[in-house]
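Hello Y.,

Per our agreement to keep a running log of every chain we model this quarter, I'm adding this entry. I've kept the format consistent with earlier entries: sequence first, then predicted structure.
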Amino acid sequence: MKKVLSALFLVAAWQMALAQNVSMFKLLSDSAYQTKSEYQMGNKYQKDAIMFMDMVADTHPYYIKEVRRAEWFAKKPALLEQCKDLENDEAFVDALIDVLGPLRDKHTDITTVKRMQEAKLKKNQDAGTADIPSDRDMEHIMRLHRSYYDYSIFPEYSICYLQFNQCANASDYPFAKFLDDMFAQMEEGGIKTLVVDVQYNNGGSSRLCDQLLQHLYPIDKMKFFTSYLRFSDLMAAYNPRIAAAKKNWEDDGHKEELYQKPAPVIPANYVQPKQFEGQVVFVMGKRTFSSAGILLTMARDNHIGPIIGTTSIFSPSHYGEVLPYKLPNTGVLGSISSSYFVRPDVTKTDEKLLEPDVKVDLDDKEASWQYIVRKYGTNGK
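Predicted structure for the entry above:
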């Protein structure tokens, strides 16, 4: 066990660096397949399909159990038969997506360079036109703001409205400093309600969400996610020390068990920010995902405040910590989760979606805002 733990000291830093460079796709080696007749006799799509099936079975946390791997490999004959007649990479990707099924999400996916380029082009084309508000909503507070985060204070309702659009630090205004300034102004104005709107936030660094939560709830009382790591050959290709950890872990009798990462440790010199004592309301939308979804799950399971808006597109307990890869014969690109995160309230682990406390039609911004003002504002009192 000590050997396993020693090999993990660099994992956190390595995965953080990897997350910051999602364009780094590890080319899978087919050296172990060269002597296998099934591989030798296949066309390029069949060869990469064989490698894909093996890689998913060895990497994704869901397939840690032998019975699940058996179900996965039962799909292999049909896939190889389908690959026999494929004529292009696009059809191959569609076939792999079909086989992957429900495990495909923004963390675990398959694509081609062409699709990536088309998606990037579309994103750039849409950048200037996406979310253009109607004339009615042009100046509405709940429209999409063109910043990672900003806030507005409405003293007449004793509400501070925080729109948190990206879990990333603005180069000229770090989030931690932004929060200090916002909460200081709220205290000065005696603001009673904080509205945290993450309806446009599709994730980023969870550290920023932690910084916000620390202002809202005592860290020594907070319940956190439990994270489980699966050692794999793909992870070892990024970090050679993982290969030794994988062997030691399995030799210790844990072949069908995920490694539970140590719980967060509060540093001895940690200084708890002053707690906001008012009510907190969270807004969840159709784009809320990844780290922003973690933020809302933490809020729900620690009873920090109600959530309004739409049903989540994310699962509270979820897979993550992406490993990008490249199949050698086709050049098809993929990403796959290496970890499983269990929400703080383990009694709700199997819930697939996070439901808001109150459903609100966020497309009608004025009605949404008026609901917030009526329900959570002081109306000048």
